[in-house]
Every structure is written in C-alpha cells, then in structure tokens.
Amino acid sequence: MSDTKGLTVASILAELEQPNVDWQQLLESVITSFDCSTGTLHFLNQETELLQIQAHKGIPPFLIPKLSTIPIGKGMAGIAAERKQAVEMCNLQTDDSGVARPAAKETKVEGSIAVPMLLDGKLYGTLGIAKPVPYDFTEEERRNLLEIGEAMSKALLA
C-alpha cells in the first residue's frame, strides 16, 4: 500500500523500530499512508483502564477535551478497545447505531475506523483514522492497521 507521498505500511513499521518513537509523526504517517485527513492515538492507562490521548490530527480544538480520556466501551475507540477488534463506519455523519458519540459528528469526517493496539491479546491502546468522504476500509487495510497497532504495542514496551 502506498500513496503519492510514498509512505507504506512497511515504512511505518520501520518507524516503530526506532528508539524514542515520535508518536505525533507516526500518527501523521498512518493518516497519510491510508489517505485520511484525521486521526487519534490513545494509550491505555493500565491503572485507570482509561484511554488517554497521545497524539491527534485534524480534530477541532473544542473536541480535544471530550476525547482526551475515553472509557473502555464508549465511542469508536472505546468499543474497539472493549471488543479487541476493528470498529468502522462508512459514514459517521449518518450513523445511528450509537457507536459514534454525538460529538464525533463535529469532526465532519465520514469513513472512519478505530483499531485496538494489541500484543499477545493484551490491550495497549487504540488507533483511529478517518476520511472526509464515505468509505469502507478493505480487509487488507484493516489487517494492516491491526499490524501497525501490534507494532505500536511492542514499541511501547521497548
């Protein structure tokens, strides 16, 4: 997978093998690689069992307080963490499933996905990206995002 900027899943995985990962840069690489406009990266606080924002891009400033701490089971990131599987929406703007929190619509994104960061079945956080248009992520894209999530979990332990 690549785009006009030449970023690939392999190059993102290589970034994660470096010491002292720049999480903001890494998130931006993922967003670019998957041709998205918005993204969030949350790490799980193992003591509180809350997801804490680590990096974000394209999120309106007034929404940052609402997504800085996310309980497991709330919103797309929280549900991805709870289920330990990818959660996606073709169009977040028209979704009425209750998975997306009402404030999420303020991001103005449509096609969105959140994946858990898992290593050996243990949750370390979530990665979410979105496009400004309706979109269904492919099975390969889901697999690649889960692989990136696993590599991010390993980097956290390094």
From TrEMBL:
Organism annotation: Zobellia amurskyensis
Domain GAF per the UniProt entry, residue ranges: 24-156
Pfam families tied to this protein: GAF_2
Classification via Gene3D superfamilies: 3.30.450.40
InterPro entries: GAF, GAF-like_dom_sf
Protein name listed in UniProt: GAF domain-containing protein
